Amino acid sequence: MKAIFFLTVLLHIVMTVHSSAAAILKGHSAGMAYRLDEVADSLGTVWGMAFISPTALLVTEREGRVRRIDLGSGRMDDIGGVPPVRDRGQGGLLDVAVPPDYAEEGWIYFTYAKEQDGQGLTVLARARLSGKTLTDWQELLATQSASTADVHFGSRIAFDDRGHLFFSVGDRGKRENGQDLSSHAGKILRLNRDGSVPHDNPRIGGSGLPEIWSYGHRNPQGLSWDGGKRVLWANEHGPRGGDEINVIEPGGNYGWPVVSHGKEYWGPLPVGEATSKPGMLDPVKVYIPSIAPGSLLVYTGGAFPNWRGNLFSGALALTHLNRVMLDDRLQAVGEERLLEELDERIRALAESPEGYLFLSTDSGRVLVLKPDR
């Protein structure tokens, strides 16, 4: 009887290990086989992800939590020291990012929705991680974007290789903010990493807020710096139709709400005056119908060599991983929709040091896409 009992237990263990090691799904793209595995589940809405070591992934949950996932053991630690956030509508604790020299400086950057006099606004801050606690918390910029509308916070962060950071702020549900240079709403901002304003920011019109790098945006939730080509990429939510991918130029006006490819939610009428207008920059790619892009990443890794230089976005409304191929002139020349059978709202993306593609879903999962060899 004991032998049968231990044999049954051993069989259960083998089956459990086999089950946990089984891929969620498999597929092929650009001549390469991939598999999708689960890293963690039962989280909140994972809005941002950042690698703080080759085996440690830091994630933010919109509800106001930060967790560290040990990719070797699967252990998750709650991280303390997080300030209160305005967890309403699309707001809450949003992006997390680390600069290329994180190992030397130790600064971790966050964006979140903050409560101020009954309104919410997008804030950029940074802190250091000591054990399981965030310390030395510094609020770098409380943007001029306060509103009672808990929508369109933007809030992605990207770093270039010259000591600057970029982060996005949505129009906060007020369309005219996109063209209002006295507001940070509807803009992409550029700062030095300590929160000061770079001396070579464009100073648009001579009277705009000094942090503004580009304007005329609706709700940019994806930012990615391509160091090889020295290009800043952004994607943003359009209205009903008209999501965009843009190359971001200093001082550039991207048109919202004067130009748009989208339509009103309440009827089949176009938003704005036209889809293009002199003095306003056209998108590299437009999505009609909307995919609702929740992130953006320029793939640079070695795990999937045929994807190098491609753009990846998580799609919220159309529940897939979106891949866009570019030519030498940075024009979109192809598109592929991956993981549609997963049927999950894919929000955040992160590339691991070995080139695996990590993604989060609004159902509280963290997944990893890796080669299936």
Q: Nearest-angstrom radius of gyration?
A: 21 Å
**Structural class, from secondary structure content?**
mainly beta
Distance between the termini: 41 Å
Side-by-side strand order of the widest sheet: 1-2-26-25-24
Based on the structure, what is the oligomeric state of the protein chains? single chain
Helix content: under 10%
| CATH fold group | Neuraminidase
Walk me through the structure.
There is one protein chain. The chain has 373 residues and is mostly beta strands. It has a single domain (33-371), classed as Neuraminidase (6 Propeller). The chain contains two helices and 26 strands. It has helices at residues 2-21, 102-105; strands spanning 25-29, 32-40, 46-53, 56-61, 65-70, 76-79, 93-97, 107-116, 119-130, 133-142, 157-159, 164-169, 187-192, 212-215, 220-226, 231-236, 243-248, 252-253, 285-287, 297-298, 311-315, 320-326, 332-338, 346-351, 357-361, 366-371. The strands form six sheets. It has a five-stranded antiparallel sheet with strand order 1-2-26-25-24, with no helix packed on it. The radius of gyration is 21 Å and the shape is globular. The protein starts with a helix and ends with a strand. Residues 1-20 have low confidence and may be disordered.
